[in-house]
Automatic annotation (TrEMBL):
Ranges for domain FAD-binding PCMH-type: 33-214
Keywords: FAD, Flavoprotein
GO MF, any single term: FAD binding
Record keyword Flavoprotein present: yes
Gene Ontology terms describing biological process: respiratory electron transport chain
Domain of life: Bacteria
Cofactor entry: FAD
Protein name as catalogued: Hydroxyacid dehydrogenase
UniProt-listed PROSITE patterns: FAD_PCMH
């Protein structure tokens, strides 16, 4: 029998998509990568995922796991050979259990992040992972890429938020590792191996996640600053003044927010006069476990001192939930504004916080020396050292002109990242986009260890081939 016949027998014809029905799954969200798949399958249980993997193994067919297809590095898109099977986790969308005494919840990989947040809140708990795509990205994809988001400063990346996993291995077996334990020192940490592996070692089908108490109160403010150096100094003061209560510190170049309010006129900056043209903005969020009054007093004390010392030139503190949401909406609309303005050369980098200002000054100057007129589009999670350092077209350039410069732009930015002891991928993963860059910035020992792990867990090389590691691996 053919593989298609086998898959239809396992799942039913309605859950095996081909032709035009498969096309939406064959292209990434950024429309940068388009491949061809033999089929898209939609299993409804872990056992069905395992059966699909065994069928693909028997026929030698590559497997491409896919969650919400919101990734930015082409990690969930097949190549153009047309022999791969995309395994969509969309039907694996149940919340299996919530344990408020243990502060855990167990969910399937296809659960949309926002639905997980809401289920936790209904149980009186917080699941803190939060990012712009939370209305469509899925937990499986979040874990496969070790997603970051806006609250890493307080709660950590996705890896820090998961206690146990259920995984279908490359052999079609099921590892039942859904343990809700904070301490389990019994050998190698397989959980951490699969988190961040981008589907190249197995398929995450469920996870046991950490929950936290809901904050009693929170305060949000949008601040204007004269320089990125002032932003770094303000972060140090905020950490000293707020401690673990500081849950968010976002940095945005002024041009980013100007683009948002130009393209989405229903949004506005909460300032008057010259402050609306500030070169830099910071978004701070404080979560408090005592009271609204306590939170606001702490917030105003730290920000008041920063204003008096000239670090902050203006501040807009949200007076209610609606204003807080409006401020966050400004920040979360930056990627949408970027997409409207056309393709850019994107970078998701991490730098030691103490070096971020020097990295930006040095790299901006190097880019202008080599490619005069290109624009820097800089925003990100300053609190954990993660910048989205993007490069947009110079006046008069076309998208094609800019993309032709991409290798040179990558070379300058990535070399600068390494000069400042950083990483060329902070939270978006490697996928196809950075796969061929990795050998330039990983040591031979690191790459060889990664290749050996890949071969040990996926000896046939069928799990998401061509992602993270080069095909020769």
């Amino acid at each position: 029998m053919s593989l298609l016949t086998d898959l239809q027998s396992l799942l039913g014809p309605s859950h095996v998509l081909t032709g035009a029905d498969a096309e939406p799954y064959e292209q990434d969200w950024r429309r940068r990568y388009r491949g061809r798949a033999l089929a898209v399958v939609r299993p409804g249980s872990t056992d069905e995922v395992a059966a699909v993997v065994r069928a693909c193994l028997a026929h030698g067919a590559p497997i491409v796991p896919q969650g919400g297809n919101t990734g930015l590095c082409g990690g969930a898109t097949p190549d153009d050979r047309g022999d791969a099977v995309i395994v969509s986790t969309a039907r694996l969308n149940r919340v299996r259990a919530i344990d408020t005494d243990n502060d855990t919840m167990t969910v399937e990989a296809g659960c949309v992040l926002q639905a997980v947040q809401e289920a936790a809140e209904q149980a009186g708990r917080l699941f803190p992972l939060s990012l712009a795509a939370e209305g469509s990205c899925t937990i499986g994809g979040n874990l496969a890429t070790n997603a970051g988001g806006t609250q890493v400063l307080r709660y950590g990346n996705a890896r820090e938020l998961v206690l146990g996993l259920e995984v279908v291995t490359a052999d079609g077996e099921v590892w039942h590792g859904l343990r809700g334990l904070r301490k389990d020192n019994t050998g190698y940490d397989l959980r951490d191996l699969y988190v961040g592996s981008e589907g190249t070692l197995g398929i995450i089908t469920a996870a046991t996640l950490k929950l936290f108490p809901l904050p009693v109160a929170s305060c949000t403010a949008l601040l204007t600053l004269d320089s990125i150096d002032d932003a770094v100094e303000l972060l140090s003061r905020a950490r000293a003044g707020f401690g673990a209560s500081l849950t968010g510190f976002e940095l945005m170049a002024g041009d980013c927010l100007q683009a948002v309010i130009k393209l989405f006129p229903q949004q506005r900056l909460p300032f008057e006069g010259d402050a609306t043209r500030s070169p830099w903005f910071a978004l701070l969020e404080l979560s408090d476990s005592e009271s609204e009054t306590h939170a606001r007093e702490r917030f105003e004390a730290v920000l008041g001192a920063a204003i008096e010392d000239g670090l902050v030139t203006d501040a807009a503190i949200a007076a209610n939930l609606a204003q807080s949401q409006a401020i966050w909406h400004l920040r979360e609309s930056i990627p949408l504004a970027e997409a409207e303005l056309g393709k850019a050369v994107k970078h998701d980098v991490s730098i030691p916080i103490s070096s971020i200002a020097r990295f930006v000054h040095t790299t901006n100057a190097a880019l202008q020396a080599s490619f005069p007129g290109v624009r820097n589009v800089i925003f990100g999670h300053l609190g954990d050292g993660n910048l989205h350092y993007n490069v947009a077209r110079a006046p008069g350039q076309t998208e094609a002109d800019l993309l032709a410069l991409q290798p040179g732009v990558y070379d300058i930015v990535h070399r600068s990242v390494m000069d400042f002891a950083g990483s060329i991928s902070a939270e978006h993963g490697v996928g196809q986009l950075k796969r061929d860059e990795l050998p330039r910035y990983k040591s031979e020992i690191e790459l060889n260890l990664m290749k050996r792990i890949k071969h040990a867990l996926d000896p046939n090389g069928l799990m998401n081939p061509g992602k993270v590691l080069q095909a020769s691996a």
